[in-house]
Design brief:
The complex is a heterotrimer of chains A (about 350), B (about 280) and C (about 290). Chain A is built from 16 helices and 12 strands. By secondary structure, chain A is of the alpha/beta class. Chain A has a 4-stranded mixed β-sheet with strand order 2-1-3-10. In chain A, helix 2 links the parallel strand 1 and strand 2. In chain B, helix 1 runs antiparallel to helix 13, helix 3 runs antiparallel to helix 10 and helix 6 crosses helix 8. The two termini of chain B are about 35 Å apart. Chain B has a single domain, classed as MetI-like fold (Orthogonal Bundle). Chain C has about 290 residues and is an all-alpha fold. In chain C, helix 11 runs antiparallel to helix 14. Chain C starts with a helix and ends with a helix. In chain C, about 60% of the residues are buried. The N terminus of chain C is likely disordered. The chains are: A alpha/beta (about 350), B mainly alpha (about 280), C mainly alpha (about 290). At the A-B interface, helix 3 of A face helix 3 and helix 12 of B.
């Protein structure tokens, strides 16, 4: 009796484990063969890992396909580009902690500076490619509900009582930092450069924020999917994409009088390309981003192209707007320290009483 | 050497050694790495980080919401376990299978699903918001998310014990003139108390650290609906590893003390009630 | 007596050990309501969204190469984590439930710790250990061993997060049973292993089963910890929960919920296996009588 019981209970456990094994072993075997294929890559296939931030998924899907073809035609070599996306800061941290990216394409120069500070990228990275190593730019615009029921036209409408503003948390989102600085810049310009007034203005805007999502996409979802808020402060490319994906009928874009030139830069990660022997292809990949072909893809994905010929072809898509630059805030290091670091102005706005 | 009470059962030394080795490798060394990182801060700096008003407000929210979530689970989890083991009703097996869902559902998905339900256009939001009950982007929402993720703990710890409980003991109590309420309170409850407490402790502890589901429903407003794990993430985004490790260490110490307290309580109750509930060899 | 516990259906009870029908009905209704709001509704939301564009779209979403890779990685990870924690859980439960020794309460508490540690921190500790800036990072990099941002890191983080499940399920059950049966077996001349397999294991198999099932479900669904150590390389280091996030953030809501529903299906499948085993066992034990 006891022996029978013991066999049965063993059998039940073995049966349960067996289901895992059956599910797991073939999976593991095929997983292995894949790694071997990648190890054999030196014979004619080269792999690149592009570590990027959240909103560029669609962009790099198109770019990578174009570059793979371009590189094959040019050198006969097959290149496979792997993509990783996430919050810009988190992605920079992953690279610092050992994610072996060949190139990084992030939301802020500040994040690439952080990687450079750990010796993975040469400190002069931003001067190695044209236009501050930023092949495409964007700016910050408003997305409002169809018909603009709250009549939102410019930044000062965001500070009015009764307007609900959706923007992500600048402590966790690169895009949110551009939003914040654009609002700050608008206030400075209107109040003759008075920092205290600018702070009061930004404070009034954040008083209207009911939810601080951790990333730009999260805010878009809150606004678009859940129907919360009257206005979404977003990257121009995010706003266009939301219109495209969610149907143009229910939302419209409002361009404020002043915005900020958002420059998401790119860089080759020197330490990793030297280790992988992929420097040539990695550099070619980034230079490819400046070619007319790639600039057109970027414009089609709602990023503002640098190349004049492409820009004029898409001029109806991108309205002219007065753009501040990060240099007017003393560069990223200074802006980060003043506004977003622990104890900075953003923290003071949310001071716990 | 190991300071243990005498027992005729074998296998203590190898089992103890393996347990301690595994715990050290998988758990203690990584945690030591965390504490060492926090220790790179000077004491005044450490206290400034972990004692700042915003961080303290997040501890308070995390603690209270976890307590509320675990409390709800203690009551309803026990009820569900009881109903599942004692009564027959249509769909019992399906309900039983559903209990583990919060484990299997990625927390982010749970957060999205709950926020969808309670949003102004959601199924429950439409009914609750006119009544003045706002769940999404409030501390209540945090409590709801934490109730969801902790639900299986109480049910799954109490259920096996209820299943193994001897019907004869209850029958004996009844035949000796005990009312049903007396039997439940005096006979059944003491035997399930250790596992019930365990379930509560686990649900509570799990809720303290939860991140994925809460960030969707809480709104993340500093000082109001910002939980401690979010503070850690915020610090990491600024490449402030030491600050993140400091807050993490405080949470760790806190959970450890709480768990220790509840384990002692459970151990005490097991010692107190175990001999009575112990089954005789068949 | 053990056969009685084995019965999958609750036994009909005599009047003396049952509640009045009104009480019983009320309890069932309250329990079902709670389950409906907290479990059924979210599940309906997930499945509703997953099949919003029909079965064909659902199938296509899952056949995506990146999604298939994520499914594979999730299965491998869960298998590894469950196996490791199963062996540990049984030995830890034996140590803790059967013996009284110095430091026992502390050991129990330490085992619970991963529950209380934020998943984010569970991932972070491995980055602090094995990351390029971590304590062992230099050595690993010199030997070209990759742990974080590769499958080993994902397995480690999952093991860490699911660490307590098996042990935690077994300990209360073993404790409730006491030591007499094992002591009797030893006195009658059984060896330690014989005692364990013939006396202890049959008594605790339900706890063990629940432990494995829960450990597996949690291993497959873990998001936060894995997210920190994964690196999010598409098709290589994304698990199902991470793939859900990627799809959701890429405006592929339906595909995201399709992947999420897959986890719910996997959990249900595990539970069906469990129920089948239970049913087989209860039948066999009846035949045995």
């Amino acid at each position: 009796m006891a022996a029978q019981r013991n066999i049965r209970s063993l059998a039940s456990i073995v049966a349960l484990l067996a289901t895992f094994v059956l599910a797991g072993v073939p999976a593991y075997a095929s997983g292995n063969s894949e790694t071997q294929a990648s190890a054999a890559g030196s014979t004619g296939t080269v792999k690149l890992l592009n570590v990027s931030y959240d909103p560029t998924r669609e962009l790099y899907e198109d770019i990578n396909a174009a570059f793979e073809k371009y590189w094959k035609d040019k050198t006969g070599q097959t290149v496979e580009i792997e993509q990783s996306h996430g919050g810009s800061g988190a992605q920079a941290r992953a690279v610092i902690d050992g994610l072996e990216a060949d190139v990084v394409t992030l939301a802020l120069a500040y994040d690439i500076d952080a990687i450079a500070a750990h010796g993975l990228i040469s400190p002069d990275w931003q001067s190695r490619l044209p236009d501050n190593s930023t092949p495409y730019t964007s700016t910050i615009v408003f997305l409002v509900r169809a018909g603009n029921p709250k009549g939102i036209k410019d930044w000062d409408d965001l500070a009015k009582p009764g307007v609900s503003v959706i923007t992500p948390n600048p402590k966790t989102s690169g895009g949110a930092r551009w939003n914040y600085l654009a609002a700050w810049g608008y206030a400075l310009k209107h109040d003759g450069g008075d920092q205290a007034q600018a702070e009061a203005f930004v404070r009034a805007v954040y008083k209207n924020v009911p939810v601080l999502d951790s990333g730009a996409r999260g805010s878009t979802t809150t606004f678009v999917q859940r129907g919360i808020g009257d206005v979404l402060v977003a990257w121009e490319n995010e706003a266009f994409l939301a219109l495209k994906e969610q149907g143009a009928g229910s939302f419209q874009i409002v361009v404020p009088s002043v915005s900020i030139l958002a420059e998401p830069p790119v860089a080759v990660v020197d330490k990793n390309v030297d280790k992988h022997g992929t420097r040539a292809v990695a550099e070619a990949y980034l230079r490819f981003l400046y070619t007319p072909e790639a600039q057109t893809i970027e414009a089609r994905n709602f990023y503002r192209p640098r190349l004049q010929s492409v820009a004029s072809a898409f001029s109806s898509q991108f309205p002219k707007v007065e753009l501040l630059t990060i240099d007017q805030f003393g560069g990223w290091a200074a802006a980060q320290k003043t506004h977003f670091a622990d104890g900075g102005i953003f923290d003071q706005i949310y001071q716990v009483q | 050497m190991l300071l243990k009470e005498r027992s005729i059962l074998p296998g203590f030394v190898p089992a103890w050694s393996y347990t301690v080795l595994y715990v050290s490798l998988v758990l203690l060394i990584p945690i030591a790495a965390l504490v060492l990182k926090a220790a790179t801060l000077s004491w005044p700096h450490f206290w400034a980080v972990v004692g700042s008003p915003r961080v303290v407000a997040s501890y308070r929210l995390s603690l209270l919401a976890s307590l509320a979530g675990a409390g709800a689970n203690a009551v309803f989890g026990l009820l569900i376990a009881w109903v599942l083991t004692r009564y027959r009703f249509p769909g019992r097996r399906i309900v039983d299978a559903l209990i583990d869902l919060p484990f299997a559902m990625p927390t982010a998905v749970a957060g999205i699903a709950l926020t969808t339900m309670f949003s102004p256009v959601g199924l429950l939001g439409r009914a609750l918001i006119p009544l003045g009950v706002k769940v999404d982007f409030t501390p209540l929402g945090v409590g709801v998310a934490l109730t969801f993720i902790g639900l299986p703990f109480v049910v799954r710890t109490v259920q096996p014990v209820l299943l193994d409980l001897d019907a004869e003991v209850e029958e004996a109590a009844a035949s000796l003139g005990a009312s049903r309420a007396q039997t439940v309170l005096r006979v059944i409850l003491p035997s399930i108390l250790p596992s019930w407490l365990t379930g509560f402790a686990l649900a509570f502890a799990r809720a303290l650290g939860e991140y994925g589901s809460v960030v969707f429903i809480s709104g993340n407003l500093p000082g109001k609906t910002e939980i401690s794990p979010l503070i850690i993430i915020t610090k990491l985004e600024q490449f402030d590893y030491a600050g993140a490790a400091a807050v993490a260490t405080v949470m760790l110490v806190f959970s450890f003390l709480l768990l220790l307290l509840i384990n002692l309580l459970q151990w005490w109750s097991a010692r107190r009630f175990e001999p009575g509930a112990r089954r005789q060899p068949a | 007596m053990i056969e009685q516990a084995l019965r999958a259906e609750p036994a009909r009870r005599s009047e003396a050990t049952d509640e009045r029908p009104v009480v019983r009905g009320a309890l069932i209704v309250v329990a079902l309501l709670f389950v409906a709001v907290f479990l059924v509704l979210p599940l309906l939301v997930v499945f509703g969204q997953a099949f919003a564009k029909g079965v064909v779209f659902y199938a296509r979403a899952i056949e995506e190469p990146d999604s298939l890779a994520a499914i594979r990685l999730t299965l491998v990870t869960a298998f590894a984590a469950v196996s490791l924690n199963l062996v540990f859980g049984v030995l830890a439960a034996w140590t803790i439930a059967k013996f009284r020794f110095f430091g026992r309460s502390v050991l129990v508490t330490v085992i619970d710790l991963p529950f209380a540690i934020s998943p984010v921190v569970s991932g972070l500790v491995f980055v602090l250990l094995f990351g390029a800036q971590g304590w062992l990072g230099g050595w690993l990099s010199a030997h070209d061993i990759r742990i974080v941002f590769a499958p080993p890191g994902i397995v480690l983080a999952t093991v860490f997060v699911t660490f307590p499940f098996v042990a935690r399920e077994l300990i209360p059950v073993m404790q409730a049973l006491g030591n007499e049966e094992e002591e009797a077996a030893i006195v009658l001349g059984a060896s330690g292993l014989q005692t364990f397999f013939r006396v202890t294991l049959p008594n605790v198999k339900w706890g063990l089963m629940y432990g494995i099932v829960i450990c597996n479900a949690r291993a497959m669904g873990e998001f936060g910890a894995v997210s920190v150590v994964s690196g999010h390389v598409r098709g290589l280091t994304d698990t199902i929960p991470l793939q859900v996030e990627i799809l959701y953030n890429g405006y592929s809501f339906t595909a995201a919920f399709a992947m999420a529903s897959l986890l719910a299906f996997l959990a249900i499948a595990t539970l069906v296996v469990k129920s089948l085993v239970e049913w087989r066992l209860s039948r066999e034990s009846k035949d045995g009588n």
